[in-house]
Amino acid sequence: MNIYINDLSKYYKNKKALDHITLHLSSGIYGLIGPNGAGKTTFLSILCGLIKNDSGTIEIDEVKFLSDDFYHVFGYVPQSPALYVDLTCNEFLEYICALKSIDKNQIDHTLKLVNLYDQKYIKIKKLSGGMKQRLSIAQAIINDPQILLLDEPTTGLDPIERLRLKNLLRNLSKNKIIIISTHIIQDMDHLAKSLIFFKNGQLLDFKSPQELILSLKQFFYETIVSKNDLQKYIETYHVSSIVPINDDYKIKFFSHKDELFPHCKEINLEDIYLYYYGDVYDKR
Ligand SMILES: Nc1ncnc2c1ncn2[C@@H]1O[C@H](COP(=O)(O)OP(=O)(O)OP(=O)(O)O)[C@@H](O)[C@H]1O
């Protein structure tokens, strides 16, 4: 399965929400990264046919985009779960099976996958936020879609629920294209094969986490500063981490100049998020 997105743009009146996005996606998990307003939801909404793009094309190599066949290979987890809270989990999934024209015998298997089998006959309004999120994922995966889109699925989940969700997505990802939008970049660590960075509707970068770290490490430096000097460094450099060490601080920062400080031994995805969405990117 491949998705070819070519020169995709979208306006809301005069506001450009997506600006000439071109991407080729094959099987695997993609993290769609960006701060609020970057265009993530707009992009996913176009991919699932909820809204229309103004220009550009989307092609999928096995089905025609937005045809009936497309909806059989596709699942969507919206930003806010759209659930009927007076139904039980079982009743809700029976309704989804009817909508998707699939056999109800998929329900038990799906509830087990999302770890909600014990809640099968519980009303949705009695579920915790994390359980509701998993039920929302259940409705999206019940037809075993080859394309799965999730809009900020980790928002509001505690660390254990986030870990559960990551494991579930990892287990589901074989032969599927999974796109997960998030501004919590750490959630993509050891999960996404590639990260797609959006800012103001534009594509900033599209690389694997390893490639990103390799290409950006050269801009990161580290040094130890005294408590008195810390504020001066924060004002002068783009500091991405501060770790107290006895009475001093170990700071990590990025700069596009050749600095006299040692380069960082390691940088992580959080450093990369700050690199792209801190003000340094606009100042380059
Ligand atoms: N229905 C709409 N009408 C007008 N402008 C909109 C509409 N939906 C989104 N926008 C604007 O388009 C831009 C992209 O919004 P979008 O919701 O796609 O971003 P996002 O990255 O998903 O943000 P968030 O992380 O806050 O969900 C923003 O500037 C937003 O204000």
From TrEMBL:
Residues 3-225 form the ABC transporter domain. One of its GO terms (molecular function) is ATP hydrolysis activity. Pfam families: ABC_tran (PF00005). The keyword Transport applies. Keywords: ATP-binding, Nucleotide-binding, Transport. The keyword Cell inner membrane does not apply. Belongs to the ABC transporter superfamily. This is ABC transporter ATP-binding protein. It comes from Faecalibacillus intestinalis.
